[in-house]
Design a protein that fits this description.
The complex is a heterodimer of chains A (246) and B (302).
Chain A lengths: L1 H11 L2 H25 L8 H33 L3 H6 L5 H34 L7 H13 L2 H11 L5 H12 L2 H7 L2 H4 L6 H6 L12 H25 L4
Chain B lengths: L3 E12 L2 E7 L2 E3 L3 E5 L6 H8 L7 E6 L2 E3 L3 H5 L2 E4 L11 H12 L3 H10 L15 H13 L5 E5 L7 H17 L3 E6 L2 H7 L2 E6 L2 E7 H5 L3 E8 L2 H10 L4 E3 L3 E6 L4 H8 L5 E9 L1 H8 L7
Parallel strand pairs in B: 4-9, 4-10, 7-8, 8-9
Antiparallel strand pairs in B: 1-2, 1-3, 1-5, 5-6, 10-11, 12-14, 12-15, 13-14
Helix pairs in contact in B: 3-4
Classes of the chains: A mainly alpha (246), B alpha/beta (302).
The complex binds adenosine-5'-triphosphate and magnesium ion.
Organism (chain B): Polycladospora coralii
Protein name (chain B): ABC transporter ATP-binding protein
Pfam family, one (chain B): ABC_tran
């Protein structure tokens, strides 16, 4: 039943919007990465890892957390429009399964976004051929960690998105919340910033050991991430199960 | 003895301290077409939403198919088809794809989709996106969604809203056929007595959140009565003499009004009144509509 509901989400989503968003993120960040690597080449010699750091910043600080919000709103949007929640809730399906299916679907879309971002990075690198070695395994790990680091935000957004019916308003709120990320993620140590769920993928994806690396404490960081995921998911699910559908 | 498909006990629903539904006890026997009748804001939709588990009752209990709602929510909902207020679906998908989503949740084959499209006569429009449907077509699709799994209980909230006369007739015929077709019990809400009168076997009248009447429709029909209003020179004297002989009678300063149980009673009444000066005689029929309007406190304009 859970898998059935998960499959249904694929049928409902408007793929054209989603593909546009994913390509937008990939192309902008790959181009910015190439551009910044070139313009900063005087301070930071070009390399595969330099290209990664330059591409990553905008993706992890801005696009990826913003997309969590957009994708979550989009996944709830079809139910908000035309009041399809009401119809769905009259079906013999478990509310928990429905909620989990939505959560799984959102994380799936975010995995696709992350994968496409890395494909964009590899293709850009392949075109400009920066010096140095490409450590693919490392990047796969960054990709997965950056994706996992967004789970608390997914849980938070899914809680919020079932309340906000208007897609435009939800988009505005998200942009508004993502903007301080630049300050939070780059200015605070990870054990403080991790409480602000928009900032997590930046910490998880930024390679350690460079001059500009964020102040990162893995144990604290991942504990907070785990704890807040569970907390937001639990609150969101409880609300979802007990709420009225008008 | 027939089983009750739906039974509620002192069901209440409260929004911001205002009771929208107040101690409702619904009993719907199996195979009935139950007309849930009430003016705007009476609490019909709120009650139906509680039955379906969309709203949490503030107190009271619900049993459907003998099982407790919402404790056995999923197994109860498996046997219910519903359309509450305006129909809801995914506007960017075609009618067929919308039905496909519901069919796959119920685990039904594609033939079920085609069958139900035929029933509501949407087959020619099955592949158009629903957002391009007319209002009536959306309503039909909503009914199709409610019927796709041949439910044991169908709950429809003002289903003929916005349909043209032909569409209304068609839905009415369909609803009348359902009890024999799929052995479906139907609960249908309406603010029009005339609509309920044409299809319902049972009726519940709700007003201001309270149930005013609930029984077989024929019992309601028996409440219809005729009155003979007789203008007289001296109505109070006539009143006194008639009252002694056991008539159901009322009086004002120009006329008496006598309840008629059979038309044949008229001659007897005239016989009794032969010693009085009759000025005028009128017969007034108190129709179901009048009764409904009396009960729901909306006075008909004279
Ligand atoms: N979500 C809500 N919040 C506050 N009050 C509500 C809410 N939903 C319904 N009500 C109130 O409850 C009462 C009953 O509303 P309901 O929708 O059940 O009426 P109805 O019988 O379906 O009327 P109609 O024929 O207009 O559809 C109304 O007074 C309405 O204002
Ligand atoms: Mg209503």
């Amino acid at each position: 039943m859970l898998f059935n509901l998960y499959k249904l989400e694929f049928k409902k989503i408007q793929w054209s919007i989603l593909i546009f968003l994913i390509l937008l993120d990939t192309i902008i960040n790959a181009s910015l990465g190439a551009m910044f690597m070139k313009s900063n080449s005087w301070y930071f010699p070009p390399s595969w890892s330099e290209l990664y750091i330059q591409s990553l910043s905008f993706h992890a600080l801005f696009f990826y957390p913003l997309y969590v919000g957009i994708i979550t709103s989009l996944v709830c949007f079809y139910e908000h429009k035309n009041n399809a929640w009401k119809q769905l809730m009259c079906l013999p399906i478990s509310k928990t399964n429905l909620y989990v299916a939505k959560f799984m679907f959102i994380t799936t879309l975010l995995a696709i976004t992350q994968l496409t971002f890395f494909i964009g990075y590899f293709i850009t690198g392949w075109i400009i051929q920066p010096p140095g070695k490409l450590d693919v395994i490392n990047y796969i790990i960054y990709g997965i960690l950056g994706w996992l680091a967004m789970w608390p935000l997914v849980a938070l957004q899914l809680w919020i998105s079932q309340k906000i019916k208007n897609f435009g308003r939800s988009l505005l709120i998200n942009i508004f919340l993502v903007l301080p990320n630049v300050v939070v993620a780059t200015g605070f140590p990870s054990y403080i910033a991790a409480w602000f769920p928009f900032s997590l993928s930046y910490f998880a994806m930024y390679p350690q050991g460079s001059v500009l690396s964020p102040d990162f404490h893995p144990i604290f960081f991942w504990s907070i991430a785990f704890f807040t995921s569970i907390l937001y998911f639990y609150i969101g699910l409880t609300y979802f199960i007990n709420r009225n559908w008008n | 003895m027939m089983n009750n498909i739906i039974e509620t006990h002192d069901l209440c629903c409260q929004f911001n301290r205002i009771k929208s539904v107040d101690k409702i006890n619904i009993q719907i026997p199996e195979g009935a077409i139950y007309g849930f009748l009430g003016p705007n804001g009476a609490g019909k939709t709120t009650t139906l939403k509680m039955l379906l588990g969309l709203l949490n009752p503030s107190s009271g209990s619900i049993k459907i198919f003998g099982e407790k709602m919402p404790t056995n929510r999923i197994s109860i909902l498996r046997e219910i088809g519903s359309l509450i207020e305006s129909p809801s679906f995914y506007g960017h998908l075609s009618g067929y794809k919308n039905l496909k989503i519901f069919a796959s949740i119920y685990g039904l084959p594609n033939s079920a989709i085609e069958d139900v499209l035929n029933i509501v006569e949407l087959t020619p429009h099955a592949n158009r996106p629903v957002k391009h449907y007319s209002f009536g077509m959306k309503q039909r699709l909503g009914i199709a969604i409610a019927l796709i799994h041949k439910p044991k209980l169908l709950i429809l909230d003002e289903p003929t809203n916005g349909l043209d006369p032909a569409g209304i007739q068609q839905i009415r015929d369909l609803i009348k056929r359902l009890p024999t077709l799929y052995n479906t019990t139907v609960l249908i809400s309406s603010h029009l007595l005339s609509e309920v009168e044409q299809i319902a076997t049972h009726v519940g009248i709700i007003h201001g959140g309270k149930m005013l009447f609930q029984d077989a429709f024929d019992v309601l029909r028996k409440q219809q009565t005729s009155y003979l209003i007789i203008d007289l020179e001296d109505p109070s004297k006539a009143y006194q003499s008639m009252q002694k002989t056991g008539w159901d009678i009322t009086v004002n300063h120009t006329a008496i009004s006598i309840r008629l149980d059979t038309p044949g009673q008229k001659t007897k009444i005239f016989e009794c009144l032969k010693n009085f000066n009759i000025i005028n005689v009128k017969e007034k029929h108190r129709s179901l509509e009048d009764i409904f309007l009396d009960w729901t406190g909306v006075k008909k304009e004279v």
